[in-house]
Amino acid sequence: MFRAQEAARSLSLDPIETMQPQRLVSLVSFFISRFEITQAQWQTVASLPRVERELTRNPSYIKGDQLPVDQVSWEDTSEFCKRLSRSTGRRYRLPTEAEWEYACRAGTTSLFHFGDKLSPDLANYRVSSDAMAGPSPVGSKGVANRFGLFDMHGNVQEWCADSWHPNYQGAPLEGRAWEGGDAKSRVLRGGAWTTDALACGSAVRVKGSATLRARGVGFRVVMTQK
């Protein structure tokens, strides 16, 4: 886990949709997982007693203990966090959209945390329409960002806690999860092995149904003190 402590920062805009308005967001200190949740981790937590809903123990499209889990819905990942929280006595949840972008950028303002160009040696994304090899073991592709986080670009798209809003008008300024809006849809970030390079950008946001289970859709978790 990594602890993010910066008090406030300016979120950059989506290079595709030009998300407006820009705003200064204050974030409370939080821990975020260094890697995307693996299939081995998923299976361990999915074996714990149910809190609200059943979980498929091995849902991923391509199997491998150290591969990121995918084909999990936002609802599934929320149940994962509730089971993990109850088992450990700590509070785990999905990152808010503001937390995710802060963690991804690690103080950078470029399209990606390593610059404005993406190449296959830096992230696992779809290079061409006929080049979809599959996910990589977590942490095995590219380099970590300045915060020591891996796979923030590519591998699997990552669920955020927030409901979907088409722009940032009225978005909270303290970095909490933004509810309201289209509550049946949630935010996905980071791109995946199934998407092109532009979808992997630090500011790119994608709408996904909270019940969506798709190849290349996974998550990482945040732990907070409260």
Features of the shown structure:
disordered N terminus; about 230 residues; 3 helices; four-stranded antiparallel beta sheet; paralog of FGE (formylglycine-generating enzyme); single chain; four-stranded mixed beta sheet; alpha+beta
CATH architecture: Alpha-Beta Complex
What is the number of beta strands?
10
Radius of gyration: 16 Å
| Strand ordering within the main sheet | 1-4-10-5
Range of helix content: 10-25%
How widely separated are the two ends? 16 Å
Structural class: alpha+beta
Secondary structure blueprint with pairings:
Elements: E1 2-4, E2 8-10, E3 24-26, E4 30-32, H1 39-46, H2 74-88, E5 91-93, H3 97-105, E6 157-164, E7 182-189, E8 205-209, E9 217-218, E10 222-224
Parallel strand pairs: 6-9
Antiparallel strand pairs: 1-4, 2-3, 4-10, 5-10, 6-7, 7-8
